[in-house]
Amino acid sequence: MSEQTFRLPDVGEGLTEAEIVQWRVAPGDAVEVNDVLVEIETAKSLVELPSPFAGTVGELLAPEGETVTVGTAIITIAGDAETTDAVVGDSQHGEKPVEPEAGGAVLVGYGTAEAPTSRRKRPAARAETVKASVGVVAKPPVRKLARDLGVTLSDVSPSGPAGEVTRDDVVRHAEQASVFRNIATPAAPAQREQTIPVAPEARVEVAEREDDHREETIPVKGVRKATSSAMVRSAYTAPHVSVWTDVDATRTMELVKRLKTSPDFADVKISPLLIVARAVVWASRRTPMVNAAWVDKEDGSAEIRVRNYVNLGIAAATPRGLLVPNIKDAQDLNMRGLARALEKLTVTAREGKTTPADQQGGTITITNIGVFGMDAGTPIINPGESGIVAMGTIRQKPWVVDGEVRPRFVTTVSGSFDHRVIDGDGMSRFIADIAAVLEEPALLLD
After folding, report:
1. Measured distance CA(381)–CA(364) in Å, rounded
2. What's the distance, CA 15 to chain centroid?
3. CA dist list (Å): 258 to 44, 251, 261, 265
């Protein structure tokens, strides 16, 4: 019998650190090769780490909520000398080969996908520390969402086909309309001043005083850390200029209504965002510079790289924070294909399964601030891009039509642009083109 130490690996995305989100085992548990030991969160994704060893769990060396660097010992396992020494591959994008030793095992997520993953229930002895997990069937992203929303899974009525709790079950229980909306407003705190948690994944540490809790501090890590670094880099590198215009989107709303009742679109979700996405792709073809990128070269010079394709980014406020996955080669998709791509992107973000590859290579982004009830904004450009479009809420307002005031569905389309790449006439023409499509979607037939 020998004791093996498992160290935090690089899961194949340039990982330097990760947060220990949830241990799936406890000291004294018996584990087999490929049993999931722990769920970690990197700056980009949630990852389950399977065991490379068979044996008995000794000590958990890193507590939940702690951020540890790659190579740090996180757990010990006592077992036989025959174990698997795996080459860690990318668990999300292509599998690297693993050379098994005498034991012949292959780690799920670290190598080829043939090896099964063992799912074990936690021992009853840990019940008091995992009230939301014991006896409840739910996927890791659903459990993470439940923790973020303060929902006890055992209180949720499951609706999954195998009796599992789904994301929608958790959301419905928390009275949350969608992944992009906040839950009901809580009662005002008794303390006079506090720092509002800005990221669901952040663990709040309370600065205690003798008589009350007057302040809170929030560690900046994970998605929030990556997002803040990217936004600062963009804001202080690209000179931002913003423009906007109001639009009569009544015909867009009529088209959305027709598509929802069309047999061709019966199995996909249709929303005004679909028309906006089509409009952005169409308008990008007419003003290619909005889809370009400013590139600083090593010799001190610079160049503008014009992309003749559109990897359309959709900013998504997920339980893990702001993510910007993109639809690759959106210019090649018809209306139905784009609708399916948007639905897949949204579902993937909701379930916490957005991968680093999903977020790389974007060329222009849409942020749908209308779902928050906002009319317009001046968003920050996603790094590596030159333009971002903000879609405001669509609501009925008085609008002059043929000299008469009528109720129409009105929205505001705004956008921010890198003035190094795009001049005023180009960005104005681009936003005007999007507005024209929302006013008359038939332009998409061009």
Report:
1. 9
2. 17
3. 37, 11, 5, 10
Q: What domains sit in the chain, N to C, each tagged with a CATH number?
A: 2-126 (2.40.50.100), 224-445 (3.30.559.10)
Q: What is the pLDDT of residues 426-442, one digit of tens each?
A: 999 999 999 999 999 99
Catalytic residue list:
419
Name the DSSP class of 124: G
Whether the model clears a pTM of 0.70, i.e. scores above it, the answer is no
Q: 223: Cβ–Cβ under 8 A, 6 or more apart, which residues? A: 41, 43, 44, 199, 201, 320, 321, 322, 323
Residue 261, Cβ neighbours under 10 Å: how many? 9
Q: What is the pLDDT of residue 104?
A: 33
Buried b (16+ CB within 10 A) or exposed e, 183-212: eeeeeeeeeeeeeeeebbbbeeeeeeeeee
Beta bridge partners of 169: none
Write out pLDDT tens, residues 162-219.
788 887 788 777 643 333 344 344 455 565 554 545 444 444 444 444 455 666 666 7
The helix/strand count (H/E) of the chain reads as 8, 20
Please give the Cα distance from 189 to 203 (Å, whole number). Answer: 18
Element (H, E) at 322: strand 321-323
Region 95-120 average pLDDT = 34
Q: Are 340 and 347 in contact (CB under 8 A)?
A: no
Q: Which of 48, 55, 7 is nearest to 31 (CA)?
A: 55
- Calculate mean pLDDT across residues 61-66: 90
pLDDT of 231 > 80? The answer is no
**116 contacts: CB under 8 Å, gap ≥ 6:** 34, 108
Q: Which of 1, 19, 11 is nearest to 86 (CA)?
A: 11
